Amino acid sequence: VVSAALQADLGRLLGADAVRPGDRPEYLRDALTGPDLSPWADAVALPADREEVAAVVAYCCEHTVPLTVRGGGTGLAGGAVPLEGGVVLSMERVRAVRSLHPLQWRVEVEAGLPTAQLQRIARENGLWFPPDPGAAEQSQIGGNIATDAGGPHSFGFGTTGAFVLGLEAVVPPGELVRFGGPVSKNSTGYGMHRLLVGSEGTLAVITSAWLRLLPAPERQLPLAAFFADARSGCEAVDQLIGSGFEPSVIDFFDEPTVTATAAGMPYRLGGEARFMLVLEALGSAEAAEELRAQMADLLTETGAVLVESPTIPSEVAALWRWRDGVSGVVTSLRGGKVSEDVIVPVEHLVDAIEATARIGREHGLEAMSWGHAGNGNLHSTFLVSSPQIPAAEMAIVREATERLLKEVIALGGSISGEHGIGWLKRDLLPLELDPAVLELERGVKRQFDPAGLLNPGKVLPVG
Amino acid sequence: VVSAALQADLGRLLGADAVRPGDRPEYLRDALTGPDLSPWADAVALPADREEVAAVVAYCCEHTVPLTVRGGGTGLAGGAVPLEGGVVLSMERVRAVRSLHPLQWRVEVEAGLPTAQLQRIARENGLWFPPDPGAAEQSQIGGNIATDAGGPHSFGFGTTGAFVLGLEAVVPPGELVRFGGPVSKNSTGYGMHRLLVGSEGTLAVITSAWLRLLPAPERQLPLAAFFADARSGCEAVDQLIGSGFEPSVIDFFDEPTVTATAAGMPYRLGGEARFMLVLEALGSAEAAEELRAQMADLLTETGAVLVESPTIPSEVAALWRWRDGVSGVVTSLRGGKVSEDVIVPVEHLVDAIEATARIGREHGLEAMSWGHAGNGNLHSTFLVSSPQIPAAEMAIVREATERLLKEVIALGGSISGEHGIGWLKRDLLPLELDPAVLELERGVKRQFDPAGLLNPGKVLPVG
Known about the structure:
Helices cover 35% and strands 21% of the residues of chain A. Chain A is built from 14 helices and 18 strands. The first copy, chain A, has helices spanning 3-14, 50-63, 115-124, 141-146, 154-157, 192-196, 230-242, 255-260, 285-301, 313-334, 349-362, 391-410, 429-432, 435-448, and strands at 19-21, 43-45, 67-70, 87-90, 97-101, 106-110, 127-128, 164-171, 175-180, 205-212, 214-215, 219-227, 249-253, 275-283, 306-308, 335-339, 367-372, 377-385.
């Protein structure tokens, strides 16, 4: 099918208004900067509802056309970037709130609903949706489910998948089906909805989700603590967790990250304040205050050189604004970055932070890391020049990345804790997975998508 | 392979001490009473470690011998009962604690470890493993994972699967592989360890698990509340949840259940005290006390005729002892029961309780229900005479059950909330699942177990 014919066919299915040419740059990228994926597509489809999603999938299966589903395009692994032409299916118009049960802490929303919108709906009803990956205004709940997105609050509450009760999805050759439903537990057959979580559009197109919500906490109080180095900061994290404290967030920022983002930081840092932790205490007003005070004491005892406990809303907002801006500020330093989301057993966090710095140094790359300390989840980052990265520079970054991933695996960790595999790490998957497991994953893919049309070139290694 | 030859072969693999004849009744049943499954096996294998488990799986795959893995045999759906001969592989000797990281709230244990043992290890280290299916002394963690077992605390903390970080398992044709690992999040490839949760031994033999634990709460305080009928009790549950209270347990017991178990109940019930709720408040001593007092007030306001707040340990223990005994007492009434674990959206709990009673009445069966009210999860139960159930009686029970399951599905619910499908409901799966989903599940099964040797006749409908 050539592009023009494909666009005409889609126009007949969806209406001409709902079809765009395949070369619109905003539909050809996600938030991965650095490497050039040479994306291309024949057409962009903007279905209005689940029936139209099913019609597009059916059309693609019938005509052997690749289909790349995209949410908000905020992914960091190239997962939404079309590599083999065909149709980009954007979920942006499929965004209804199908039902809201605030008294039962439950909502059914369509995949294209922006995550921040979901969070607002929850809050307006006295509830709370804890998963908070960055870029919540742009990212969509379907994409968050498809990558099992994490975020700071994953330490206390789990990733997006932990809130998925059931899914509606279109599976090849175009059937709209339901996995799980509006119930809080389900042992009926295999946990297929749990398999779709994190499958990055390669098994099915998720059209809606039943999600659980939680009662909104009365108070959420952040805490910022600074240490002289990574070792003492990580020691404090160990002490904190080992003492049985249950903060909702334990994020960290290493020295180069703190330096790079110091201008937007709401605190004046002295000479020894180089490694930063951001924590949050949550609960009733009384419980949150008490937990925060206890944690502040423990952090001071374990060597914090500065502890900040913002209380008035503008102070709290300033800290989170700085936090939300970290990734963007780091990207702007040189135009691009290759940022990992490796994860290690939490007792090895300091080893992984030090490995990131050492590997960067040895390869002549500016390196830094930050992330979710309580999970042992690091955004190990190498800066690159962008948009055009010299091939030689990219080769060095790839070499450094591969070394880092191998060290992480040797520590008992995993190459992706929250961003997914996408395009970026598909060929690195065999570093971590047993060959037999990889073969089973290929088999699962074949069962859902025998012709290999859904998001081709993603998750599984090519060849 | 005839039984004697099979036993001899297994003896060479494991040592003669580790092999039993296939007719040992204790290896041919689980806790499902009532229906006669006509179980049989050629041999029972008792491997000592993962390598021996892998050797048995490899042997069975090579010689096309069915293999039924069993944990503690406490399942309620016939899932561990061998139906097609071959080997029963009992995990009782594969029960080491491989590693314990109390400061990181993590443990790696082998599948045969009794769940109560895991709970004790956690407690001894200041931690807590919340999942609490009945029969914790007999049931094994591997079986709990294989059924995604629930229990009262699933309301507050999720089912067993919510605590699984990674799994080690043997997949056909006998390879020992790892899915996930000792990290708290994982987006590396498909969520295969989440697929193995609840797969009831039909995809792989789980040999060990990395589990997360939680800091032990300082205080756990139960609360018992009695209402005049199911409608007022369920209304109180709605109010409680809708008000944003977060108890760790909300169980219910309908009038026939309360009547049948009244002798062991630590309270003297007046005339109106017919429908019972058991709740638990958990947290710091102060928070738990406050939550329990607030809940007691709300329950009284919404019509409770009696509220008991046991405080001294012996009173608390007496309540839980009664709770743990409910299923056994009900079974003893007539020798057998067919007990469901249906689940509905929590706002329809009262409809499902009333449907159980009505359907029982219309089919001339003694019916009752209890379960996890906060989850909308009912153990709808029909009493039967046992061990020999007249075929006519069994036919009536099947008819009543099927009606109940259809009503549950019509309410948006599911036919199994925590016991799994096993043998009991395999042929009822199509009532709930889309044909395309069922086909995908069959496809997943084929990928893992192409010869259909693992726990044959379970989960998926026959034919």
